[in-house]
Amino acid sequence: MSYNPSEPSSPGGTGSLRRLTNRNTNRYSVTALFSMAAEQDVEVEDDLARAQKRLRELKSRISAQSKKNFVLERDVRYLDSRIALLIQNRMALDERDEVQATLEDVDPNEGNFPDDRKMQQYSNLFFLLQSEPRHIASLCRLVNLSEIDTLLQTVMFTLYGNQYESREEHLLLTMFQSVLSAQFETATEFGSLLRANTPVSRMMTTYTRRGPGQSYLKSVLAERINSLIEHKDLNLEINPLKVYEQMIDQIEEETGSLPPHLARGVSPETAAANVDVQAIIAPRLTMLMEIANSFLVTIIESKESVPYGIRWICKQIRSLTRRKYPEATDYAICSLIGGFFFLRFINPAVVTPQAYMLVDAVPAKHPRRTLTLIAKMLQNLANKPSYAKEAYMMTLNPFVENNKARINHFLNQLCEVGDFYDTLEMDQYMALSKKDLQINITLNELYNTHSLLLQHIDVLSPNEKQHLRICTDELGPAPAQVPRKENRTVELPLYSRWETPIQDIHMALMSENNLTQNDILYMETKSIFVQLIRSMPNIADKRPINLSGIAERAATTKDAMLVRKGIKVKEMLRELEELHIVDRKDDFKLMQDEVAAELLHLGNLREKVLLETRSLDAVYKTICDHNAYLRSQLEQYKAYLQNVRLTASKDKSSAPVGVVSVGGKEKKQPKSTVLGPYRFTHAQLEKEGIIVESNVPENRRPHIYFNITSPTPGTFIIALHYKGRDKAILEMDLKIDDLLEKQKDNKHLLDLEYVQLNVVKVLQLLNKVFRSK
Questions:
Q1: CA–CA separation, 571 vs 525, rounded Å?
Q2: Is 559 helix (H, G, I), strand (E, B) or coil?
Q3: CA-wise closest residue to 468 among 151, 125, 179
């Protein structure tokens, strides 16, 4: 069990603890509360403790890495749009400097932290924001689309960044409930709910990209997608116009001409009416429906693996819809749930599995199209199908009709999860005995959140006596954003000025739950026996459990900690016997049974911990791979900008085509040096995943090689050679601008007639070979 809570706070301010615990006295097992308290100071080093420690560390690394990836993805999105302007020669010199600054790494020695007083005020403010999610919920609805990503970074990966810790996750979901509730309140029509690209929809998508969501996608979809993309030549295109075009291309290639009855440039209707096209499409429809059904079965069978938070959001969508639209049919309600689960969560991973690191390389052309069709089928199944733009999808309607009831049952089943309010309040109660709550937050996250709060403070906290208003008034104006280089991370402790921490958890349990000193003594004795047995594994399996013997053995070991506990528990057992709570004559059977039950639970827990660790190891590797992929994209941008700076002051007329020459004083440049050629075999490029598809016959591939030359910065020539021939079979003149533009437009393949290359991996190769030259 891993907890990292803080003191709870409520809109009512002081006195919230007493109301909280009195309200829940009958809800919780006091033993569970005590076990949580006792576990805070357990000094056990058995297999379970080690497994739990490793799992905690792994979860922490996943949370931290998820945030890094989110920031990198945002940087890449920004640079995609800015680089496009560079490519089009439309960016001013100062804008180029701004883009360059986005690529700077943070210097740990640059920048200043706020003073101690300001840090204390920020500690109070961010505690309040974390423990009362309604403030963040309101802010997320007030900001505009251009501001939401920065705020989401702070909310999803900093304020509630510990993605596997129950209290933070449940507070985040409480915030979601508030946001969704407001979305339903302000909705003008049913059809527009949750579908537009709004801050709320962006928030829901971002939530699915956290560690648990990535873990689910990897475990459920990766194998299914990889088995599909192995069949590179399997063409399941069903758009009659495309099938018709492919058909006449093949006929022309095989015969050298087209029959009179087949013309180019026909209408979709003419293509669809062609008998040969219909014959090609018919078996493809059958196969597509079989593949889509296999995906559907896999997803339906994975219901229990769907992360709790995603299921709980589905539950809220159903509940809010029923309240707001009591006349809505189950079909209509399921279309909204499906809109979230499939549109925002499942389908993006099906369509672009490489972006989710579910596959090792970009799928080839035909499997990529098949995945797109599968995603459309799943979306039509979960949502109301619309064939206005793609009438040919109607031919797959039998799949929708045959599975509609099945998918609705699955979506309703997704909603069948318990609420967490009781657990959250127990976590909040336990938080009062903790003193180590903190978040790692960058200066710009700190200042940006401060600034957004001030912009909307009159809506968020209209009363000057409300806690949020008091915090922001004391902080004053928000500091400006610091340069990226100075954007250091600070450890911000979180605590409330309006709540008093619990100093003694045992006394608090007694006073709040009507426990007696005897109750506490019994639970503490049992807890120490469990710890001793875990610390001496060679006696863990002996039954019946000899409590007296265990206490004596601990008291006489060479381990000072065990000796202290052994002596203490012997005395406690004697006290309990004098109080007639346990009896030596029956070997303390009451406590013996409870200790055995606790050990059984812990044994099962260890298996669960190990299973979860194995699963999360794969998730962590995936997230790290994605981080490496994003970093390689940024490296390409750095290389490109370096080339731009080298040539920016050249005269435009003398600059090579595709190279930017903007403003500034002209400087005499040395004559460009031709770099290369660098030679690569067909087998090398295939092994590296650079060659995606090859039309070169197998027996000739060992004789094929590629020469890559860079005549000027940012310009490359790829030449395809056959051993023994002086002249290249084929040459392609490439500008790095063209490759970056292809990447930005999600065009993954570069066609060299005989081979198709992976654009991203070509960029990586060019960067690796020429950057240092």
A1: 10
A2: coil
A3: 125
| Token representation of residue 242 | 């495309």
Residue type, position 171, single letter: L
Task: Please tell me whether residue 441 adopts helix, strand or coil conformation.
Answer: strand
For residue 755, what are the β-bridge partners? 694
- In the structure, what pLDDT confidence band is assigned to residue 645 with cuts at 50, 70 and 90? low
Reference 374, options 402, 347, 401, 406; nearest CA is: 347
The label of the residue with tokens 């079909």 reads 331
Q: Which of 358, 365, 229, 381 is nearest to 292 (CA)?
A: 381
In this prediction the pTM is 0.65
Checking if the pLDDT of 623 tops 90, the result is no
3 state DSSP class of 721: strand
Q: Maximum distance among all alpha carbons in the chain?
A: 107
CA distances for 417 relative to 209, 308, 407, 410, angstroms? 21, 8, 18, 13
Question: At 342, which amino acid appears?
Answer: F
Q: pLDDT at residue 30 above 80?
A: no
pLDDT value, residue 375: 92
Per-residue pLDDT band for 661 (boundaries 50, 70, 90) equals very low
Per-state percent for the chain, helix, strand, coil, to nearest 5:
65, 5, 30
Place of tokens 């900008």: 641
Is residue 131 within 8 Å of residue 9, measured between CB atoms? yes
Kindly list the distances between the CA atom of residue 591 and the CA atoms of 31, 232, 528, 584, in Å, as whole numbers in the listed order: 13, 64, 12, 11
- In degrees, rounded to 5, the angle at the alpha carbon of residue 178 between the alpha carbons of residues 173 and 183 is 120
Residue 308 and residue 306: Cα distance in Å, rounded? 6
Task: Identify the H or E element spanning 768.
Answer: helix 759-770
Q: What is the DSSP string of 117-161?
A: HHHHHHHHHHHHHHH-THHHHHHHHHS-HHHHHHHHHHIIIIIT-
Residue 256 CB partners (closer than 8 Å, separation 6+): none
Would you state the pLDDT for residue 238?
Answer: 93
- For residue 417, the one-letter residue type is V
What's the whole-number mean pLDDT along residues 154-163? 82
Instruction: Please tell me the distance from the alpha carbon of residue 191 to that of residue 174, in angstroms, as a whole number.
Output: 25
Q: What fold does the segment set 209-414 form as a domain?
A: GTPase Activation - p120GAP; domain 1 (1.10.506)
Are 722 and 709 in contact by the 8 Å Cβ rule? The answer is no
Task: In whole angstroms, give the CA distance from residue 704 to residue 687.
Answer: 14
**23 has a pLDDT exceeding 50:** no
The helix/strand/coil state of 101 is helix
How far is Cα 253 from Cα 249, in angstroms, rounded to an integer? 6
Q: Return d(Cα 708, Cα 770) in angstroms, integer.
A: 10
Which of 5-19, 232-246, 687-701, 712-726 is least confident?
A: 5-19
Angle between helices 116-131 and 134-142 (to 10 degrees): 90
Give 412-444 pLDDT, tens digit per residue: 999 998 887 655 555 554 454 455 678 888 899
**Does residue 14 carry a pLDDT above 50?**
no
How large is the average pLDDT for residues 224-232? 92
